[in-house]
Amino acid sequence: MNARADNEANESFEAVLRYIRDARGFDFTGYKRASLMRRVRHRMDQAGFSTFEEYLDTLQASPDEFSALFNTILINVTSFFRDPPAWDYVRDEVVPTLLAERRPNEAVRVWSAGCASGEEAYTLAMIFAEAMGVDDFRARVKIYATDVDEEALNEARAASYDAKAVEPVPAELLSRYFESVGGRYVFRKDLRRAVIFGRNDLVKDAPISRVDLLVCRNTLMYLNADTQRTVLGRLHFALAPRGVLFLGHAEMLLSHADRFTPLNLKYRIFHKVLTAGAQVDGIPAPCRSTLRPTRRGWRRSGISHSGPAPWRRSSSPAMTPSR
Ligand SMILES: C[S@@+](CC[C@H](N)C(=O)[O-])C[C@H]1O[C@@H](n2cnc3c(N)ncnc32)[C@H](O)[C@@H]1O
Questions:
Q1: Is residue 203 in contact with ligand 1, taking CB distance under 6 Å?
Q2: How does pLDDT run across 62-85, given as a tens digit for each residue?
Q3: Domain enclosing residue 298, as ranges
Q4: How far apart are CA 206 and CA 197, in angstroms?
Q5: Which residue, 69, 76, 225, 305, could crosslink 262 as a Cys pair with Cβ 3.0–4.6 Å?
C-alpha cells in the first residue's frame, strides 16, 4: 500500500471508530491502534469485506454485525487461576496480610475489573473462602466483577463451566466449590451471592470505591498510554488507603510511582501510594502502608519490594509487555 492509500485507510478506520462511539456508545479510540485495526480487519475478512468504507455501511445497517465485531475486539480469553504462581503469591502473602490488617468483622471489598466470563472472580472467591472459612467469607466479603461485554457477564452470572474450563482448579477446590450438573461444573450458589456482576466501562464509568484488592488483569494492555493513565487514575481512586492492585503478567506500571508502589514486581502486585499527610487509623500513611500487625505491634510487611526501583528510571509508556 502506498502512503496515500495508507492515509485513506487510516482515515476510514477512524470513521468506523467514530461511528461505533457516536452511534453505539462505545469508545475504542483509546485502544492501541495497531492491534485494534488488526482485529477489525480480521472480522472484516471473516465477513467478506475488504475496505473500511464498505464495512462501515454494513455496520450502520446491521446490529448483528456490530455484536460480531464487538466479540472480535473484546478478547474474552480467561481462566481460573490464570498464571498460577502469581495466584499462589496472592493466596500465601497478599490475602493473609490483607485479612490480618483488618478487624475480625471488618468488610472486605474486592473488584475484578475486566472479569470476562467470571473465572477470575470465582478464583478470588475460592481463595478468600479458603483463607477465612465459608461463613466468614459470606458475612464479610463482596467481590464486584465488571466488564463492558454483556454477553461475557451473562456467562459469568450463570457460573457454569465445562470440564476443560475447570482443569486449572485443584481437585480439592473443585469438589468443595462446584456442583456437577449435567456434565458441567456450577459454582456454589450460596457463595455466588458474594459475587456481584455488573457492566462497567473502565474508560468512562465511575469506579467502585473503597476497594481492598483490585484485580485488573490483561485488560489495560489493550489501551494506549494516555487512556491507561486515565484508567489508572480511576483505579487509584477506587482503592482503599491500604488497597492492593494486581495486574496481568504482561502489564507493568513504569511511570506511575506517584500512585502505585510495588509489593511484588514479578507478579505485578502494587500498593496504593497515599497522598502526603493522609492518615490511616491515626498512623501516618507512608509508614502505615508497609506495616503489618503482629502480637507485639506493627512491623514491616513481608511483602515489600527490595533493591532499586527500576520503575522510577524509565520514561517508557505507562505499561509495557514483560520480557
Ligand atoms: C483478556 S480478558 C481478561 C480477563 C481476566 N481479567 C483475565 O485476566 O483472565 C479482557 C477483558 O477486558 C474487557 N474489557 C475490554 N475493554 C474494557 C473496558 N473499557 N472496560 C471494562 N472491561 C473491558 C473485555 O471485554 C474482556 O472481557
A1: yes
A2: 888 998 999 999 989 999 999 999
A3: 84-305
A4: 15
A5: 305
